[in-house]
Structure to design on (328 residues):
């Protein structure tokens, strides 16, 4: 959005490589991988200071009007921006209270805590997230901007004969073992984990256990007929919005944020550790293809109205502009 607006140039700094790198390159956006492992594993204060100085040299700080972090682990970069007079925005999507890496030495943990609180403004995706972090950011200007669904989502045609589901490994595995006649009628897909190291292990596990579970490079809901999960923190929340915006029957993970977003919906939700509940919903849809369709369409209309990308992206850019204005 920022690149397409022609009002911003963007540099992306990430802690590890991932599926979005190709997307950044496609829109001619500079993307840099900076590994803070040496900071978090530093055995003493002088080693941590040396690691932080090394990280600082890896980032291009020239011509920046604002600095935005999305991952709390990137908080170490906030004071480096502030030292140069670059205002900072923290877009925090954490649903649990922020905690520094407990394996780091106390000096680094304290550095990260103070870094979070040094931000000029903070954005939360839900009121529940803001309430969870209130004790940390009580003195920081705060704005609530809900997640938006991906732009350009197309509605799923009704009466499709395909049966493709985004489903966790444990759900697909249980169906293959206990209801093979149902599993045989479906194709199962699973998107990537949020961290490359975890993703490598999980892909090996999935390939060994359920060869028919197709690993996808992203969380696109294109061509899906059912969206289940994600469970165990495997994936982000935005694909849930995408699936609903496309009128795809969805059984979402119950979190404080999804419960807040879907407070007016009667679609069922499951806890993040209940793969069998998802399996039983798939069996119900296999038996009755219109299962949940009326409620899905009602909820989809709500999501398209209240999580529209044009409005919320504009609101987010306005917040960024207000933060950057203090640098001029």
């Amino acid at each position: 959005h920022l690149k397409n607006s022609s009002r911003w140039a963007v540099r992306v700094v990430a802690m590890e490589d991932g599926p979005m790198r190709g997307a950044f390159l496609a829109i001619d956006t500079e993307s840099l991988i900076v590994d803070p492992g040496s900071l978090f594993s530093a055995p003493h204060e002088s080693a941590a200071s040396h690691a932080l100085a090394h990280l600082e040299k890896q980032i291009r700080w020239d011509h920046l009007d604002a600095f935005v972090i999305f991952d709390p682990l990137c908080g170490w970069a906030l004071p480096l921006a502030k030292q140069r007079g670059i205002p900072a925005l923290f877009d925090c999507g954490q649903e649990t209270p922020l905690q520094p890496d407990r394996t780091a030495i106390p000096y680094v943990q304290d550095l990260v805590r103070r870094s979070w609180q040094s931000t000029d403004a903070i954005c939360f995706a839900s009121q529940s997230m803001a309430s969870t972090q209130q004790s940390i950011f009580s003195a920081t200007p705060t704005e609530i901007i809900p997640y938006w669904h991906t732009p350009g989502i197309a509605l799923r045609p009704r009466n499709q004969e395909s049966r493709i589901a985004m489903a966790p490994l444990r759900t697909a595995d249980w169906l293959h073992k206990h209801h093979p006649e149902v599993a045989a009628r479906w194709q199962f897909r699973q998107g990537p984990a949020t961290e490359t190291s975890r993703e490598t292990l999980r892909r090996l596990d999935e390939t060994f256990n359920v060869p028919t579970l197709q690993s996808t490079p992203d969380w696109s809901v294109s061509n899906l007929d059912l969206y289940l999960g994600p469970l165990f923190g495997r994936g982000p929340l935005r694909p849930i919005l995408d699936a609903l915006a496309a009128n795809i029957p969805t059984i979402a993970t119950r979190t404080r944020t999804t419960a807040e977003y879907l407070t007016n919906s009667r679609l069922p939700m499951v806890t993040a550790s209940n793969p069998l509940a998802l399996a039983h919903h798939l069996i119900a849809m296999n038996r009755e293809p219109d299962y949940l369709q009326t409620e899905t369409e009602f909820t989809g209309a709500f999501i398209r109205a209240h999580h529209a990308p044009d409005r919320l992206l504009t609101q987010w850019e306005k917040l960024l502009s207000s933060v950057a204005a203090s640098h001029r």
About this structure: The CA atoms of residues 3 and 327 lie 20 Å apart. Residues 309-325 form the longest helix (17 residues). The first strand starts at residue 11 and ends at 14. The two ends are 22 Å apart (CA to CA).
